Amino acid sequence: MEARSLYRQFLREMPARKPSLLANPSSLQQRLRAEFTSRTPSDQSSSSSSELAKTRQFLQYLRAQRQYITLLERYNPGMNMDEEDRVRMTARRVGLDVPD
Questions:
Q1: Following CA atoms 70, 80, 76, 21 in sequence, which dihedral angle do they give, to the nearest 10 degrees?
Q2: Which one of 36, 83, 91, 100 has the fewest CB atoms closer than 10 angstroms to its CB?
Q3: Is the pLDDT of residue 34 over 70?
Q4: Is the predicted pLDDT of residue 21 greater than 60, yes or no?
Q5: Which DSSP state fits 6?
Q6: Spatial contact of 73 and 84, defined as CB atoms under 8 Å apart
Q7: What was the pLDDT predicted at 64?
């Protein structure tokens, strides 16, 4: 039961995809599913606590990375812009319009 919960949490941390995630899973999602379904129910109940701890730790790492990227994009809005757009946005910030 806990393995299913961890699997669902991993899927929530994956980037959203269009069309539906379930209709077209990525190779990483297919690999995750294979790892979680390869164990029989008796294996899941007897899985070691260290293995579950490693899985939880990796899940926490994924959450931290997602949050890091979100914050990086929020506080550096011009990070993914090319030079021309960055100059235009900087000029607009100080009240100037750059001619096209």
A1: -10
A2: 100
A3: yes
A4: no
A5: H
A6: no
A7: 92
Q: Are 72 and 61 in contact (CB under 8 A)?
A: no
* CA 53/CA 34 separation, integer angstroms: 19
Rounded-to-integer distance, Cα 52 and Cα 58, Å: 10
**Integer Cα distance of 32 and 7 in angstroms:** 8
DSSP 99: -
C-alpha distances in Å from residue 60, one per residue of 31, 44, 50, 75, 82: 19, 21, 15, 22, 33
Task: Give me the percent of the chain exceeding a pLDDT of 70.
Answer: 82
Statement: the pTM of the whole predicted model exceeds 0.85: no
Question: What value, to the nearest 5°, has the Cα angle with vertex 68 and ends 63 and 71?
Answer: 125
CA distance 1 to 39: 12
* Helical pair 2-13 and 49-75, crossing angle rounded to 10 deg: 20
